[in-house]
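Quick one:
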Amino acid sequence: MSAIQQVLAGAGGVDLGPGGIWTTQPGAPSLRWKGVCSDTTGQNLIAVANTTGSAADRIYKSTDYGVTWSLLSNSPTSLWTDVACDSTCTRIIATRTDGNPSISTNGGSSWSTIPTVTLNPAYSVDCSPSGQYWVSARSCNHIYVSSDYGSTWSEKQPGFTAYNNVKVKISSNGQRIGLCAYGRYITTSANAGSTWAEQAGSVSTSFTQLGMSDDGAVLVASVNGGQTYSSRDYGVNWTSAGLSGAANAGTACSPDGARMVATSGSYSYTSKDSGVTWTSRGTGVGANAINYSGDGKRIIVVSEPSIYTSA
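Output:
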């Protein structure tokens, strides 16, 4: 453990992991950041911005754990909403509100528009670590999946009212999909979107943030203006984290599902047992989007106007 982690560990020397000390990255431009993704170690990061028509609304990359950021000069100017990448940060897809998603297959050196789907606008995107399986969403009734590295897509319609503000997650084998949308319970699929189950056990219909483990078994979600909840049985049953002062928390879980974070502008909480217990870690940061690195050792948060990291 680092010296900082030893101080945070407390009695018993348990490593509480990232989420206690947040570092503002001054090398990131001051923008309205909307999405971020990471490779396995957190060294290579991609972030997208949406500042209502600004020429700076492009795609940015860091190759030094978020310390410095470079504009990907060949990326389009657009109103970006989210971004996802494979475990090597080679295959990347970014979604937007003013066009179909853009895809890069070479780490962001060049970009093309995905032409064969109606994902305009699209609000969320996620992929498996291999980059083979993808999911993206226009609304909770217009979900698109790909099983060939983003080359072709098929629409899956859960049959719900088309609420927006949707977040989607996909498992490493492409079969498990998690979905939250403001106005609906958490919704899951166990067969790549062929059928869907609205999980009434998720308690609320006001979730705005969603995290999911690579196997789809562990989920964490936060309610708009309210509490954070977790599930350890593929979204069927949910328990409240009982956090104090963490309303509107940005939430995520590590790929193995063991570690979770809930952070707001006032508080930061983490769990190392899939949400069974939580530890207060002090002052947190507001999050438009939040992600773990693939190894679960780093957390990356994008907000307005800053980018934060914790290790």
